[in-house]
């Protein structure tokens, strides 16, 4: 973990140095080393644990989208919530995100699930837990990642410029409950999962609302169209 911290994008490294030095992160690193020593496969790969932060420097964050855990199937997780690598089947929740994007902004659904272009524009695609064991959903919950990503959200909350937080589902809403709604825009809906999307995610228009807020505060809107890969 300490080695990963050295490679972290510089603005995040400055903000998170205290977390990496803490006992809980040392314990988390020891846990991951032990899991790997037992032959377990961990997703994403080590160089991508902090991919969301590497692609979206702290001072460039314009939107935060919160997920829960990385995908636990082979070839899926690569460090950005809701996103999968090119060529991987688009997960059901992302299919619904694309449907809402089309209804809201008229953007046709992408033929892939690779969201890196959003991250490069300032959309922090952050999972609450940054690793998972192959085939075991939520296997790394309660090991320390939640405390680390709470600190990530606090760092964004303390930024001087206004940010949009898209909180989909009760888990994300509880996690970011401390965000300052006087300075930032907090958009809430149910999760885009097929189990809940029809209960308020569809029709929420979060993408256009986010851009309207950013423009009203003198910040560049997000181009939500995804380029072909």
Automatic annotation (TrEMBL):
The active site is formed by 69
GO CC annotations on file: cytoplasm
Indicate where this protein resides in the cell. Answer: Cytoplasm
Uracil-DNA glycosylase-like domain: residues covered: 54-214
Q: Which UniProt keywords apply?
A: Cytoplasm, DNA damage, DNA repair, Hydrolase
For this UniProt entry, the molecular function terms from Gene Ontology, in alphabetical order, are: uracil DNA N-glycosylase activity
Alphabetized InterPro entries for the sequence: UDG_fam1 (IPR002043), Ura-DNA_Glyclase_AS (IPR018085), Uracil-DNA_glycosylase-like (IPR005122), Uracil-DNA_glycosylase-like_sf (IPR036895)
Q: Does the record's keyword annotation contain Transcription regulation?
A: no
Q: Which family does it belong to?
A: Belongs to the uracil-DNA glycosylase (UDG) superfamily. UNG family.
Q: What does this protein do?
A: Excises uracil residues from the DNA which can arise as a result of misincorporation of dUMP residues by DNA polymerase or due to deamination of cytosine.
Name of the protein this chain belongs to: Uracil-DNA glycosylase
Give the organism the record lists. Answer: Metarhizobium album
Gene (name only): ung
């Amino acid at each position: 973990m300490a080695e990963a911290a050295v490679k972290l994008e510089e603005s995040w490294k400055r903000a998170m140095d205290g977390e990496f030095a803490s006992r809980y992160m040392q314990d988390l690193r020891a846990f991951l080393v032990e899991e790997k020593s037992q032959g377990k496969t961990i997703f994403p790969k080590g160089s991508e644990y902090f991919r969301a932060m590497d692609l979206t420097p702290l001072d460039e964050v314009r939107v935060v989208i919160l997920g829960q855990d990385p995908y636990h199937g082979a070839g899926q997780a690569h460090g950005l919530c809701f996103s999968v690598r090119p060529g991987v089947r688009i997960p059901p929740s992302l299919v619904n995100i694309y449907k809402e994007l089309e209804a809201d902004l008229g953007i046709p659904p992408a033929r892939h699930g690779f969201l890196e272009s959003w991250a490069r524009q300032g959309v922090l695609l952050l999972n609450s837990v940054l690793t998972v064991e192959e085939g075991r959903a939520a296997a790394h919950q309660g090991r320390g990642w939640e405390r680390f990503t709470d600190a990530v959200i606090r760092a964004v909350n303390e930024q001087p410029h206004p940010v949009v937080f898209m909180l989909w589902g009760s888990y994300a809403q509880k996690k970011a409950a401390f965000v300052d709604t006087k300075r930032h825009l907090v958009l809430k809906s149910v999760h885009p999962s097929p189990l809940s999307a029809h209960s308020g995610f569809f029709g929420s228009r979060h993408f256009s609302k986010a851009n309207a807020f950013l423009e009203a505060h003198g910040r560049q809107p997000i181009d939500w169209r995804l380029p072909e890969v």
